[in-house]
Write a structure and sequence with these properties.
Blueprint: E1 3-8, H1 15-27, E2 32-37, H2 51-62, E3 68-71, H3 74-78, H4 84-95, E4 98-103, H5 104-108, H6 116-122, E5 124-128, H7 136-147, E6 151-153, H8 163-171, H9 181-190, H10 197-204, H11 209-228, H12 235-244, H13 269-282, H14 287-294, H15 305-315, H16 325-334, H17 336-353, H18 360-369, H19 371-376
Parallel strand pairs: 1-2, 1-4, 2-3, 4-5, 5-6
This protein binds fe (ii) ion (FE2) (2 copies).
One fe (ii) ion binds near residues 214, 218, 245, 246 and 314.
């Protein structure tokens, strides 16, 4: 009798997790499914829910997918060194014949696993691919060639759902269809994922309905790009930077805050003022988050990943459907760095075509990232 082992943060578990596990259980004729929520020592954990709450949600989410469903706290008991190559032998001892279920993004990341060859030597690995995220079949062949073992790509295609996306909707106070009703019920009853409720409401009062809709679209876009391209940016930092990126757009009063003089009265003022007001009105102290807000319109030379992410997510946010944004969005989806450059180039050409001065930071960003384009304009 096979047992399917399914590990993950499950912060929170969503409907695609359930479908993937169901598919693995059916494919292997398994009678038992064992859920293995990840555990990080509290000081390292930047997640939203503690282990016990995530285990509780997992129990509610996966109930009934197999004859027997167990949520195993092996990771919490071990406390550290929770690597698959160490956990799987333990699971085998406990449950016998096992199959290890992973998501398509984990397979793509296999080079970063500890001892992938030992994981693959331990048991069959089943992969649940996700739509638009790499080529699971090709990655499977490469992985087997490199590390040996047996990998099965499930006949299943996960939809456009991720824990990040679900979490962002919940944090924004929006309804989320992608979580099993029993999980939704626990989340609502216990008031989980309400960490930013106050900030969201405050911001809603500062933005018109249209701008707030753009803000939400930019948040979803930033969270999606972070997970799609495995940018490994801390979820909270991405969420807060995207949430507050336009907080000063409709509040142009300077209030004596420190902004570059040459930005006053121009469209780029709101980025500088936005960073200052995020600090003053929302208590943001993280310099990297403030800088992502501060340069989201102009860009600048030598940007951090978070800065590029917010800049790119804003320009290609889901509410922008005028040409050529859908094509740019597709470019960014295919290749983050290349897409970022395409967005910067497009924006620069557009500004130049309008005539008038381009803000100096944008000129220097183009010189830095796209010297040939800058040369075209004699800069
Ligand atoms: Fe903006
Ligand atoms: Fe924006």
């Amino acid at each position: 009798m096979h047992t399917v082992i399914y590990g993950g943060a499950f912060d929170p578990p969503h409907s695609e997790h359930v479908k993937a596990l169901k598919c693995a259980v059916e494919t292997f004729g398994a009678k038992r499914a064992v859920i293995l929520p990840t555990y990080l020592p509290p000081h390292k954990s930047r997640g939203f829910l503690d282990f016990d709450t995530r285990a509780e949600l997992a129990r509610a989410a996966f109930d009934g997918v197999a004859d027997e469903v167990i949520v195993d706290d092996a990771e919490k008991v071990r406390g550290k060194d929770n690597f698959s190559y160490l956990l799987l032998p333990e699971m085998k001892k406990k449950y016998g014949d096992i199959v290890y279920l992973i998501g398509g993004d984990s397979l793509r990341d296999i080079g970063g696993w500890r001892h992938p060859e030992r994981v693959l030597a331990e048991c069959t690995v089943a992969v649940a691919p996700r739509k638009g995220c790499g080529d699971a079949e090709g990655e499977m062949r490469d992985a087997i060639e490199k590390y040996g073992g047996n990998i099965v790509v499930l006949d299943f295609m996960g939809g456009d759902v991720s824990s990040g996306r679900v979490k962002a909707s919940l944090l924004l106070g929006e309804k989320c269809e992608d979580i099993p009703p029993r999980v939704a019920e626990i989340i609502a009853r216990r008031g989980l994922y309400r960490d930013y409720a106050e900030d969201v409401e405050k911001l809603r009062g500062m933005e018109t309905e249209e701008l707030f809709a753009h803000t939400e679209a930019a948040v979803m876009r930033a969270v999606d790009l972070n997970s799609r391209h495995n940018l490994k940016q801390d979820f909270r930092r991405v969420f807060v930077a995207a949430l507050l990126h336009d907080n000063a757009k409709q509040r142009p009063s300077l209030d004596g805050l420190d902004v570059p003089k040459d930005s006053v009265g121009t469209p780029v003022l709101h980025q500088f003022l936005g960073a200052e007001k995020a600090r003053r009105d929302f208590g943001v102290t993280d310099g990297g988050v403030l800088d992502a807000i501060r340069y989201h319109t102009t860009a600048k030379p030598d940007m951090t990943v978070l800065e590029k992410l917010i800049y790119t997510a804003d320009s290609t946010s889901y509410d922008r459907d005028y040409a050529p944004i859908p094509e740019l969005r597709a470019e960014v989806d295919a290749d983050f760095e290349g897409g970022f450059l395409a967005v910067l180039g497009y924006t620069y050409r557009k500004l130049k075509a309008k005539g008038g001065a381009v803000y100096p930071l944008t000129e220097s960003a183009v010189k830095f990232y796209l010297p040939e384009l800058a040369a075209e304009y004699g800069e």
